[in-house]
């Protein structure tokens, strides 16, 4: 049964496996404590998805203790003192007390196992994560004031920030992540250390940086987290396209700079996400990251026009290429890269619709080019309207309402989500009496273009159109 330790807010609970594991270790003469995020989340009145424990038992002693009790265990983290195990529906990690530090030029920590819970807690990242519940008694151990800092929404480090960030430079990014996820503020000394030590993050692997960035972007206040990365100088190392926006004026002077505009677009995109049953369930990394990166091509495309105006022609295409290179450097998977870059490339496509309207052909192309990113593109485009001019904002909003209505109307008639040529490859070869080859590809492309321009036609008419086209070809 779920268990709620006394003194914690309603809504937080722990599975009974926590008590069982504590009794198991105590019977063997070992200490065991629930530690880190699960303890922090209890004070926030929520249930943590993770169960992390720390103990004075060595990795071999951990395995000996859980053998026969756990349904499975694995020692992939054995070198770092961590043994994973599964009991029922719970996945658990138990780690030997430890102290670890990074060599100044190495990405790999030097691991030393300890025997004291206090020594283990002081090496953790922030005071709000340096709390432990001793098991099975549920005695709270909070030597660094984590509960107080949690109530103050303040991020401090148990040791000095310099020591903490030297041990693991990724903790500087984690600070920005907690600012986003937990709506916390970093203590002044933490901000100073982040600024002075920003370049230390260069030794951290791209994969670890990527994981922190994803968690930050998917937090409750991603703009605040990004702003901390930029102000501290960390973004210059791992996401330099974003701070570069601060040097570029907004051509409409709606914001101090394009950077502030981009943060506003990010905030508005978050507000347009749907619930789990909707087309874009939040938090949606693809939509949010596209919102952040949508204008990164502006610094490279800025031009001063006669009369003092500033233009950014083709910044959408340039920005998509920059975004692709950055995401590849951070080792994102191909599908995520393609989705984000497509949104960046298409985010300007809508503009002009309200002034001149679009033909059915243009609407078909918009839907086809967006593909399975159409619902995200709807939200990104709407989020990109940040003007303070209410009339202009209302006009753009109405224009996009009209475009979505046009899309829905055409979709009812034409199945826009599956636009194909009038005839497939087999039919083309049969009608023209030709074998597989380049000629079939050209005919296919012609029929797809005709479908885009004129909509669907009956098969008999499509055959006639194909034959008429064929006689004009070499």
From TrEMBL:
Q: Name one Pfam family in it.
A: PolyA_pol
SMART domains membership: HDc
Superkingdom of the organism of origin? Bacteria
Q: Which UniProt keywords apply?
A: ATP-binding, Coiled coil, Magnesium, Metal-binding, Nucleotide-binding, Nucleotidyltransferase, RNA repair, RNA-binding, Transferase, tRNA processing
Coiled coil location:
393-420
Q: Name one GO molecular function term.
A: poly(A) RNA polymerase activity
UniProt cross-references to SUPFAM superfamilies, sorted A to Z: Nucleotidyltransferase, Poly A polymerase C-terminal region-like
E.C. number, please? 2.7.7.19
Which residues belong to any copy of the HD/PDEase domain?
254-415
Record keywords: Ubl conjugation included? no
Query: Which prosthetic group or cofactor does it need?
Result: Mg(2+)
Q: Which protein is depicted?
A: Poly(A) polymerase
Organism field: Nesterenkonia lutea
């Amino acid at each position: 049964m779920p268990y709620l330790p006394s003194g914690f807010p309603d809504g937080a609970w722990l599975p009974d496996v926590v008590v069982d594991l504590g009794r198991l270790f105590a019977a063997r003469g070992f200490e065991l404590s629930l530690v880190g995020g699960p303890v922090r989340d209890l004070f926030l009145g929520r249930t943590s998805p993770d169960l992390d424990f720390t103990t004075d038992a060595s990795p071999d002693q951990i395995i000996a203790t859980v053998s026969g009790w756990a349904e499975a265990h694995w020692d992939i983290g054995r070198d770092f003192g961590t043994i994973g195990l599964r009991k029922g529906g719970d996945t658990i990690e138990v780690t030997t007390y430890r102290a670890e530090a990074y060599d100044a030029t190495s990405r790999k920590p030097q691991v030393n196992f300890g025997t004291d819970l206090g020594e283990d807690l002081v090496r953790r990242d922030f005071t709000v994560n340096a709390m432990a519940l001793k098991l099975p008694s549920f005695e709270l151990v909070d030597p660094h004031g984590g509960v107080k800092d949690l109530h103050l929404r303040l991020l401090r480090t148990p040791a000095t920030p310099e020591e903490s960030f030297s041990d693991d430079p990724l903790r500087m990014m984690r600070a920005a992540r907690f600012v986003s996820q937990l709506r916390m503020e970093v203590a002044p000394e933490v901000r100073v250390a982040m600024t002075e030590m920003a370049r230390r993050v260069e030794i951290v692997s791209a994969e670890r940086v990527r994981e922190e960035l994803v968690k930050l972007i998917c937090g409750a206040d991603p703009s605040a987290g990004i702003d901390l990365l930029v102000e501290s100088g960390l973004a210059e190392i791992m996401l330099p396209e974003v701070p570069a926006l601060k040097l570029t004026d907004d051509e409409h002077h709606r914001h101090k700079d394009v950077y502030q505009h981009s943060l506003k677009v990010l905030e508005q995109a978050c507000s347009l996400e749907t619930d789990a049953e909707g087309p874009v369930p939040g938090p949606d990394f693809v939509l949010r990251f596209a919102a952040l990166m949508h204008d990164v091509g502006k610094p490279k495309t800025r031009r001063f026009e006669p009369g003092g105006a500033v233009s950014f022609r083709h910044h959408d295409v340039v920005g998509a290429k920059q975004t692709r290179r950055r995401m590849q450097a951070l080792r994102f998977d191909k599908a995520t890269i393609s989705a984000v870059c497509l949104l960046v490339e298409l985010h300007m496509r809508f503009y002009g619709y309200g002034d001149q309207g679009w033909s059915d052909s243009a609407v078909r192309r918009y839907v086809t080019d967006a593909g399975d990113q159409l619902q995200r593109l709807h939200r990104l485009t709407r989020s990109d309207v940040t003007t303070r001019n209410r009339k202009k904002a209302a006009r753009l909003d109405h224009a996009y309402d009209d475009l979505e209505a046009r899309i829905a109307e055409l979709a009812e008639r034409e199945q826009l989500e599956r636009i194909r040529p009038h005839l497939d490859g087999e039919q083309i070869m049969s009608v023209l009496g030709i074998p597989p080859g380049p000629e079939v590809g050209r005919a296919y492309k012609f029929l797809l273009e005709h479908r885009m321009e004129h909509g669907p036609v009956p098969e008999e008419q499509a055959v006639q159109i194909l034959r008429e086209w064929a006689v004009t070809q070499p």
